[in-house]
Design brief:
Length: 338
């Protein structure tokens, strides 16, 4: 790195990511921006993550015990010498101009404290679930507001000064969850502006299947979101826009109305109305799937998306209720039990 140039510390937390790093780290080395250092934080992996990272990283940090991405990202920041901290997931492949695009944007917008991008519309894995999930992420980010209220560490950069003043990522999550979203809340509380740069797109290498999709959406998204919503509220951004909230309600009401048909046949018209409204509110997403992958893929995606809205909404509501009860009981114990 040159002293009179903007320097970037690229921080990649990795856990059992040997195969992904074999693609993601060489892509970083092909960057057209030379003033960076590459820091890989091996989160106590049991595979060849450390050996693979050592071939490319300028700094390799090996965690003695598994600490999850939030802690790993903070450890990387401690070692980073750059004025910009560029966070990347281990299963993300950047383009040659990704770093220079970030540097240019932050140089031209000195009031912006953090930026993030999105997955591209050409996911690495070609199976249905991987294409569905990654294209969904791409669509949501590409149709979100550029003045963001959250942050995404899969491909996101923060000025180091801003990062330190915010206190870094929360370390209360024992597995990958929404630590980057909570980081975004911390930045907004300090009046730090965050921008979604839609041109900053990276390729996702992860292979999704039905089970890990459910696990992620429920236990690593909806449940921690419920806890955070009680503390901070939910943003009207990304997949929490008003239309998304209404879609979640419709996705819950539609199957209920279908069940009621067994006792009250005219309820079929209500079911059709709910389903029609749900389809209409998400028509742009379904049209996107249609144009990208064709009719068969789009039809399957509609039903999977409805199911996603259903189980995510049910989980969010249920978990919020449970956390509220626990909070009330905790206050009751403090007040009445010596």
């Amino acid at each position: 790195m040159c002293a009179n140039q903007v320097s970037v510390s690229i921080i990649v937390p990795a856990y059992n990511a040997e195969d992904h790093l074999a693609r993601s780290l060489p892509a970083i080395k092909k960057s057209d921006y030379p003033y960076y250092e590459l820091i890989v934080v091996d989160d106590h992996s049991t595979d060849g993550t450390a050996e693979t990272a050592r071939k490319y990283a300028d700094i390799l940090i090996s965690m003695r015990i598994k600490g999850a991405p939030g802690k790993a990202r903070n450890k990387g920041a401690d070692k980073g010498r750059g004025s910009i901290l560029f966070y990347l997931d281990a299963d993300v492949e950047i383009s040659p101009d990704s770093i220079s695009r970030i540097v240019k944007f932050l140089e031209e917008n000195p009031d912006i404290g953090a930026v993030f991008g999105s997955y591209d519309d050409n996911p690495h894995c070609k199976d249905f679930f991987s294409q569905y999930k990654n294209l969904f992420h791409h669509f949501v980010h590409q149709n979100a507001k550029t003045e963001a209220s959250t942050f995404w560490a899969g491909c996101g950069a923060i000025r180091k000064k801003v990062f330190l003043e915010a206190g870094g990522f929360p370390e209360r999550y024992s597995s990958p969850a929404i630590e980057d979203v909570e980081m975004g809340y911390k930045l907004k509380e300090q009046a730090i502006e965050i921008r979604l740069v839609k041109e900053l797109q990276v390729k996702h290498l992860k292979k999704w299947n039905f089970l890990n999709l459910l696990k992620t959406d429920i236990f690593q998204r909806a449940v921690p979101w419920a806890r955070l919503s009680l503390e901070k509220g939910l943003p009207y951004d990304l997949n929490f826009k008003l239309s998304d909230r209404i879609s979640g309600i419709l996705a819950c009401l539609t199957p209920i109305s279908l069940i009621v048909i067994w006792w009250y046949v005219p309820c079929v018209f209500i079911s059709i109305m709910f389903a029609g409204a749900l389809f209409y509110m998400n028509r742009k997403l379904y049209r996107f799937y249609l144009l990208k992958k064709g009719w068969k893929f789009a039809i399957l995606s509609v039903f999977l998306h409805w199911f996603y809205l259903f189980y995510s909404s049910i989980t969010l509501i249920s978990a919020t209720g449970i956390f509220m009860v626990k909070k009330i009981l905790s206050k009751w114990r403090e007040a009445f039990i010596p």
